[in-house]
Design brief:
The protein has about 550 residues and is an alpha/beta fold. It is about 30% helix and about 25% strand.
Length: about 550
């Protein structure tokens, strides 16, 4: 079907088709129609399944049913296409925390055939300028509380400064705000007749390896993602209430806290205050939450509060965004009684592609490949390795990597496969065991050591709150293992502690895997999504050796 997107900026900057991975749609549920608007499909699905009057978006201030949310989306869509005169294919920069207003704005952008470019709330003007220069948005929608940094970046370019900039989440619906303009618009809007291949969003990677890349996803990509992990592993129901900490600007959060609940007819609760580990546990009980998404570090911090206060109706806890140490999985299970649902996904693939439901968890494994995807372990030349050998993970399925105008496309997608950059092994039953990011492998005295494996051992020590393990260049050994450790309150960062941690690793893992250097720090460098920035630790370690 011909594209409905008039502005061809993104399509013209996609990599050539011979650099794309294979997009596989063999399963019946992945046979999508050529004409498809993601948001229209999700609202129509809710209505067809009898969920139109059920809650969709919740907060401590208001609750919107699917019907009410669609009315608000239509009004905002009429602002975008009528008031602002935007045309399908224009990019719209979205900046906001997790809120009902942010969710409605995102849905309106995509329903209108525009391309959503959501940005992390904590980004500064310099980082935002990089995104603006790459995405070339035609308008910005920004939470009023986060406008200063974006305005600074927005106004740094004369041509861009003349483009529309609207704020939302204003007190009492301030004049000129997105909500004020939307109130005067019709409650009806015709969704853009997009093709399934038309672009829905640009998702900027979180920057764990440096400069962020813009991953391109179509309407069909996102709906296909709904038919894989949510259908086969998560299995949410209309009675579920979802909470979580990942930002909607991150595909883990966008899927888990908006798209997938809509696909299931469930609802999402967005709090008005930032999460802390204790506040998350208390909120889960208060609102009757049944599904929670957050990163392993946060679950580890939540565990003592879950043990003290209980977890109410909570039945599913999803961990993703970084590797889940088994020590954290067992700590959470002991505290809550819930087996963690682990998974690995990628911004480039939109969401999770390897995972297992709680009843099929195998200790130490992330899980099995999600139906709709294929995965294998290969060597550096792309040849499949025998069962049990550690190698590079290669994946293909109904979603895949297409970067916007980025030479790194060639390293991510090759010969039809996506290479997320992870080292794994697979057992005879098809379970995948995570070892490290391929750039997290530490080669010391001829041995390959996975940083996350050493981290998992350290996290099992009662003195350790958090840790990050990297390699530091060394003339004698090639690299030495360095552990950056955040201790629990009351623990002393002294020589005795260092020896205790080193001995613990020696007694847990092969002795050559112990950290020869232990550096005690107050905090670790993390992205806004909670991922450990090992590249920052590697840089720190390298500078310490000079």
């Amino acid at each position: 079907m011909a594209s409905a997107q008039i502005d061809r900026f993104v399509q013209d900057r996609l990599p050539p088709p011979d650099q794309w991975p294979a997009f596989c749609h063999e399963l019946p549920e992945l046979q999508l129609p050529p004409k498809l608007n993601l948001v229209q499909t999700l609202f129509e699905r809710a209505a067809a399944n009898g969920h139109a009057e059920r809650p969709m978006l919740r907060s401590d201030v208001r609750t919107l049913s699917y019907t009410q949310a669609q009315i608000e989306v239509n009004r905002i869509a009429n602002v975008l296409t009528g008031e602002l005169g935007l045309v399908p294919g224009n990019r719209v920069l979205l900046r906001g925390g997790n809120s009902i207003a942010m969710a409605l704005a995102w849905l309106a952008v995509v329903q209108s055939g525009l391309i959503a470019v959501a940005t992390m709330p904590l980004l500064r003007a310099r980082e935002l300028t990089t995104i603006l220069d790459k995405a070339q948005p035609s308008a910005a929608l920004c939470d009023v509380h986060l406008q200063d940094e974006l305005r600074s970046a927005w106004l740094s370019d004369t041509a861009r400064a003349a483009l529309p900039f609207l704020v939302f989440n204003t007190p009492d619906v301030s004049p000129g705000s997105l909500e004020a303009l939307a109130q005067a618009k019709s409650t009806h809007a015709s969704p853009c007749p997009t093709a399934a291949s038309d672009i829905a969003l640009l998702a900027f990677t979180s920057g764990t390896t440096g400069s962020p890349k813009a991953a391109v996803h179509s309407h069909g990509d996102v709906l296909a993602a709904c038919e894989t992990w949510p259908r086969n592993v998560l299995r949410a129901t209309p009675d579920d209430i979802v909470v979580g900490s990942p930002p909607l600007a991150f595909t883990f959060g966008l899927g888990g806290l908006l798209i997938f609940p809509m696909w299931a007819g469930a609802s999402v609760y967005f709090p008005s205050i930032p999460y802390t580990p204790e506040a998350m546990v208390m909120l889960i009980a208060q609102v009757g939450a049944t599904i929670c998404y957050t990163a392993p570090t946060f679950y580890r911090q939540m565990a003592p509060f879950a043990k003290r206060h209980g977890v109410g109706r909570l039945r599913i806890t999803v961990s993703a965004g970084e590797g889940l140490p088994d020590a954290t999985r067992q700590l959470w299970k002991d505290a809550s009684g819930i087996e963690m649902l682990d998974g690995i996904g990628a911004t480039e693939m939109f969401h999770i592609f390897i995972s297992s439901a709680p009843e099929t968890v195998r200790r130490g494994a992330i899980g099995q490949v999600v139906p709709g995807y294929t995965a294998r372990i290969v060597d550096d030349n792309g040849h499949e390795l025998p069962i049990g050998e550690v190698g590079r993970l290669a994946v293909k399925g109904p979603t895949g990597c297409r970067y916007l105008d980025d030479p790194r496309q060639r390293s991510y997608a090759r010969d039809g496969w996506n290479f997320p950059g992870d080292a794994f092994r697979q057992d005879a039953d098809g379970y995948f065991f995570y070892h490290a990011r391929t750039d997290d492998m530490i080669i010391t005295s001829g041995y390959n050591v996975a940083g996350p494996e050493v981290e998992a051992a350290l996290l099992a020590h009662p003195s350790v709150a958090e840790c990050g393990v990297v390699g530091r260049p060394d003339d004698e050994r090639g690299m030495v293992i360095v552990a950056y450790v955040v201790l629990k309150p009351g623990q002393l960062p002294d020589g005795a502690q260092t020896k205790a941690l080193q001995d613990h690793v020696k007694n847990t893992l092969a002795p050559y895997k112990y950290p020869r250097d232990v550096v005690f720090v107050d905090q670790l460098p993390r992205t806004e999504t909670g991922k450990l920035q090992r590249f920052a630790l590697r840089k720190l370690a390298a500078s310490a050796s000079t």
